[in-house]
Amino acid sequence: VFVWVDLDASNREAMLAFEDRVSQMEEVVECHRVFGRPDFFMRVLVRDPADYEDFLTNKLIGVPSVLRVTSTPSLKKIKTEDHGWSEGALG
């Protein structure tokens, strides 16, 4: 599931607190702080819609300063590549 998160407070403390909490969630397999809105983009791995609902309502929504969550499930993976230099690349 692709997840976009807007924080209620876009200050350093709120962002660091969000990052700390999300880094402890096993369902979150990827998380990026991005420029502009939304504040964060994440990839969440769950078994089914009920599992995602549990993650959303019992974990993500409970993080202080989370204002808005938008999510879209992936229907089909078309391409995934890592060229070996993605760690330091913008994108």
From TrEMBL:
One of its GO terms (biological process) is response to amino acid. Residues 3-76 form the Transcription regulator AsnC/Lrp ligand binding domain. Transmembrane segments: none annotated. GO terms for molecular function: sequence-specific DNA binding. It comes from the Bacteria. It holds the Pfam family AsnC_trans_reg. Gene3D superfamilies: 3.30.70.920. GO terms for cellular component: cytosol. PANTHER family: LEUCINE-RESPONSIVE REGULATORY PROTEIN (PTHR30154), TRANSCRIPTIONAL REGULATOR AZLB (PTHR30154:SF34). This is Transcription regulator AsnC/Lrp ligand binding domain-containing protein. It comes from Cutibacterium granulosum DSM 20700.
